[in-house]
Write a structure and sequence with these properties.
Helix content: under 10%
Largest sheet: 3 strands, antiparallel
Low-confidence stretches: none
Structural class: mainly beta
Number of helices: 0
Number of strands: 6
Distance between the termini: 5 Å
C-alpha cells in the first residue's frame, strides 16, 4: 500500500492509502488524529509498523500572515496494527 498525506480538512489530519480508485476520488483514511499536524515522510518499519512525521508545515509563517505558529517538539508517530499490502 502506498500512503499519501491528506491536506488538512477542518480539525482532521489524516494519512490515506493510494489505490486505483483514487483516480476517481475514492480513498479512505488509514488514520485520523488532530495531533497529525501536516503528516508527511511516511515509512514502513521492518516489523510492519507505519512511521509518520508531523512536520507542522501548515504552521509556517507563509501560511500564517508571516508568523510561525509551530510548536516543539516535532513528532514522529509509530502506528501499529495496519497491514501493509503491495
Amino acid at each position: 500500500m502506498q500512503i499519501r498525506r491528506s491536506p488538512r480538512n477542518g480539525d482532521q489530519r489524516s494519512c490515506r492509502p493510494l489505490t486505483n480508485s483514487q483516480l476517481f476520488g475514492g480513498y479512505e483514511p488509514v488514520i485520523t488524529d488532530k495531533r497529525l499536524l501536516w503528516p508527511d515522510t511516511l515509512s514502513w518499519g521492518p516489523n510492519g509498523d507505519l512511521y509518520v512525521t508531523a512536520s507542522q508545515i501548515e504552521n509556517i509563517p507563509r501560511f500564517n500572515n508571516g508568523k510561525s505558529t509551530r510548536t516543539e517538539p516535532y513528532k514522529l508517530w509509530k502506528i501499529i496494527g495496519i497491514e501493509k499490502s503491495d
